[in-house]
Amino acid sequence: MLYKVLIEPFVFMGEAPDLLVQTLWEGLVSGVLYALIALGFVLIFKASGVFNFAQGIMVVFAALTLIGLYEKGIPAFLALLLTAGVMLVLAMAVERLVLRPLVNQPDIILFMATFGLTYLLIGLGELIFGGSPKEMITGALYLPQGTTEVTVLGGPVRLQHLDIAAAVIASAMIAVLAVFFSKTRIGRALRAVADSHKAALSVGISLNQIWVIVWFAAGLVALVAGIMWGARSGVSFSLQIIALKALPVLILGGFTSIPGAIVGGLIVGMGEKIGEFYWGPLVGGGIDTWLAYVIALLFLLYRPQGLFGERIIERI
């Protein structure tokens, strides 16, 4: 039994390196998309210190809004712009109706408010769009279809064109947001807000404006993630469970680190694919549903601040 668990999978990797490359590629695509979703959590956490439980349903709501507008006869790219506008309105509504009245309240109050926002968006989505699964408008958005087969290490590796597009688009968006929030005036204001709300207010930084910008950025992240995940697996309310896979990503990378979200996403994405393909048959499959949380648990035990998080030392 020890041989099957500790040795045989690695022997299989050496005997069929092309299958290892195929597995790593599929894990890389999933990891980049996980990182994109995690980025939405990171931005809101940096601005308010609150884990936004509603980020998962925001992914679903944005995707459903896009599909719903397209089904009403609106051209795909105009529907895309209008959906971005809807996410802006949502950001302004959250700031005005949720964050502003609860400013300076304990973090647990704001966290529970995001629970309420989650179920509000679920109910609103079901009321407007219905509860049945929908197909992403892949063709109308000119997302590529088909497969390219390349020879790697003596064997065929199949690359889905949609996966390539998803990896490129998600990576580009992560890079743009990382540069925007690290190099611009708004990015500096965000870091000031993350350090201290009171200090930020004292130098004239508007918390309300920062919160709107950050929630809108998280909404755009949710929109792109919803399009890519929806194109791969359809759009339904169960998609929010996939979005919450970003939680172990955040634990691995650190709740306040954009590079951590990227690295954590890649670790989770490739780790669960390798685990499912090579160790899944030993336990009957399904490793990809729980492996990320086991890895996160180990990090919580031995490095709770994550790979890139700041170690907090309290002196008594």
Automatic annotation (TrEMBL):
<feature type="transmembrane region" description="Helical">
    <location>
        <begin position="20"/>
        <end position="43"/>
    </location>
</feature>
<feature type="transmembrane region" description="Helical">
    <location>
        <begin position="164"/>
        <end position="181"/>
    </location>
</feature>
<keyword id="KW-1133">Transmembrane helix</keyword>
<feature type="transmembrane region" description="Helical">
    <location>
        <begin position="277"/>
        <end position="302"/>
    </location>
</feature>
<feature type="transmembrane region" description="Helical">
    <location>
        <begin position="210"/>
        <end position="229"/>
    </location>
</feature>
<keyword id="KW-0472">Membrane</keyword>
<feature type="transmembrane region" description="Helical">
    <location>
        <begin position="76"/>
        <end position="99"/>
    </location>
</feature>
<keyword id="KW-0812">Transmembrane</keyword>
<dbReference type="InterPro" id="IPR052157">
    <property type="entry name" value="BCAA_transport_permease"/>
</dbReference>
<dbReference type="InterPro" id="IPR001851">
    <property type="entry name" value="ABC_transp_permease"/>
</dbReference>
<dbReference type="GO" id="GO:0006865">
    <property type="term" value="P:amino acid transport"/>
</dbReference>
<dbReference type="GO" id="GO:0005886">
    <property type="term" value="C:plasma membrane"/>
</dbReference>
<dbReference type="Pfam" id="PF02653">
    <property type="entry name" value="BPD_transp_2"/>
</dbReference>
<feature type="transmembrane region" description="Helical">
    <location>
        <begin position="108"/>
        <end position="129"/>
    </location>
</feature>
<keyword id="KW-0813">Transport</keyword>
<comment type="similarity">
    <text>Belongs to the binding-protein-dependent transport system permease family. LivHM subfamily.</text>
</comment>
<protein>
    <submittedName>
        <fullName>Branched-chain amino acid ABC transporter permease</fullName>
    </submittedName>
</protein>
<keyword id="KW-1003">Cell membrane</keyword>
<keyword id="KW-0029">Amino-acid transport</keyword>
<dbReference type="GO" id="GO:0022857">
    <property type="term" value="F:transmembrane transporter activity"/>
</dbReference>
<feature type="transmembrane region" description="Helical">
    <location>
        <begin position="249"/>
        <end position="270"/>
    </location>
</feature>
<feature type="transmembrane region" description="Helical">
    <location>
        <begin position="50"/>
        <end position="70"/>
    </location>
</feature>
